[in-house]
Amino acid sequence: MMTVKEVSNLTEVSIRTLQYYDKIGLLHPAHRTQAGYRLYDDAALERLQQILLFRELEFSLEDIRKILKNPEFDREKALEQQITLLNLKKQHLEKLIALAEKIRTTGGNVMDFNAFDTQKIREYAERAKKEWGKTTEYQEFEAKNARRTQKESGSINEQLMGLVAAFGTLQTREPADPAVQAQVKKLQDFITENYYTCTKPILYRLGQMYGAGGEFTENINAAGGEGAAEFAQKAIEIYCR
């Protein structure tokens, strides 16, 4: 096991970035100490390596998150795609270097703009994103959402926010209390019925997002009262164990 500081030193990824990856569900530590410190195992480091390769290829964090949580994700095939993309980038850089050297040799009288063409790289990257970026859950959500009007979708989103905000009224109880856990089950069932099949791993990630801070947390707390989002996160964590 490695601490977050050790991982940062090894990979040159900042501690703040590793903490952010944890918050958005991109890279969770394998364990936490009783004091709350993050610990990473070999599997987490392999996932980080995948993330860094995709980042090197200029994939967005959201695209990477979708790719890595795809249940059909094939690590070996993804690696082949990454190698292909890296070779395309290498060829592109070699053309730019050759152009720069030619400009230096001729004193600047070179009208060649082909070296700046990155169309092949963009096209291949888009194919990779389309192949890996849509999870089964996302496809299920798209199919359900396509049958709704904008007003119906808005109403369902409001109901979902209401279910999460309702945890604010339950804060007088313990997160493990049966009534609180029943609310978690109600939330899970609602998501499954109206969005996508909400397994416990997916629900856990949603809970982490609810309490991670930022706009989502603020909206939940605004609707359910101070601490509603963080309480919902704790209740969901217990339910998902």
TrEMBL record:
Gene3D superfamilies: 1.10.1660.10, Antibiotic binding domain of TipA-like multidrug resistance regulators. The keyword Transcription applies. Residues 1-70 form the HTH merR-type domain. InterPro entries: DNA-bd_dom_put_sf, MerR-type_HTH_dom, MerR_fam, TipA-like_antibiotic-bd, TipAS_dom. GO terms for molecular function: DNA binding; DNA-binding transcription factor activity. Keywords: Activator, DNA-binding, Transcription, Transcription regulation. Coiled coil: none annotated. Transmembrane segments: none annotated. It comes from the Bacteria. Pfam families: MerR_1, TipAS. The keyword DNA-binding applies. This is MerR family transcriptional regulator. It comes from Faecalibacterium prausnitzii. The lineage of its organism: Bacteria, Bacillati, Bacillota, Clostridia, Eubacteriales.
